[in-house]
Amino acid sequence: MVATPMDLDDPASGATPSLNIKRTLGGNGPSTSLLNDIISSFRPTKLFQRDDIKEGKPQPHILSIDFDDPGELCMTSESDETIQIYNVKEGQHAKALLSKKYGVKLAKFSHTSSSIIYASTKQNHAIRYLATHDNNFLRYFEGHEGSVTSLAMHPGSDNFISCSLDNTVRLWNINTKQWTAKLFLKTPYLSAWDPSGRVFAIASPSTGSVLIYDWRNYEKAPVSVFDVLKSRGPAETDAAFRGWTTLEFSNDGKHLLLGSKYNGHFLLDAFDGSLKAYLRKPNGGTRRLAAGETENGTVESSGDCCFSPDGRFVLSGSKKDLLVWDTLSPIEEANINKVLDPKFVLDEKREAAVVAFNPRYNMIATADQELMFWLPDPHA
User: Which parts of the chain are WD repeats (predicted)?
Assistant: First the structure.
């Protein structure tokens, strides 16, 4: 694995420099740098290029990015059926794991940094629980009869949600192979937990709705149903029924982000589903498939947008540049469609098809075929 130093790297001769990352707002302790003060100064800092690709073989696409709970490890799942793990603080590649027999996508850390879950792309549709220190499977979670489209870990326990093309949502506990609950829904392609872990959301594009469930009473009807068609702002009707890429609650519990591969994302009120802002993408979205789409020859993604850890900013990839919206930006009454343009456009020539913000440090990761770490420029 080749790590390419960029403009912010410490030019220590002959050694791979450590990254000067600082704690971010949120988590278990105070931040050392408020995001509001530095968000506009983030720059592409370290590019990782795979050096194990044989000559004549295509460069794989990165399908997902995830961080462990302490924010010290970054993991990607890739289209060549590998899992790559990076040490964040050192800015170095740490380990490569192979899943050639089953394929891999949607890789997620459990609450233990040495174990992960991921969805299969070959043989069957099982979810696999892997110990990364010795590359041994701990458990298979079997039951889905269609490709898995989303995995969401509970924020404080060993429970997780899976969504699938088989029109089911399954709830699991990582300590047992049998699902604990199964919901039959139409196109339930995305899932998310609220930060308290008391509520989860399921996005169903074909019905144009996001369903909110009480975790303690999930066997009952959803407690709320958000109508995306009603809350789509200026987006075309088609965007309310397809092309959804991401579903995520903000860490302050106030907002729900519904990503779209079209010309904007939807920032919804997490309590009533009303449109808080339509986050306009000036040059449209990335070229990846949305959740649940199966077009041949096009690569899927785990999500092209996310919240910052403090819940204030939304970041989104695009065909070039990284877009940043400030959710506290005022929207004038005359702006009836609640269109919000990016407050910052962070320069980047590469497509940012997958985006993730480190939960503990001031650090962003983006990827298409190569992984990029972003840090604030101390000289900005």
Answer: 141-182
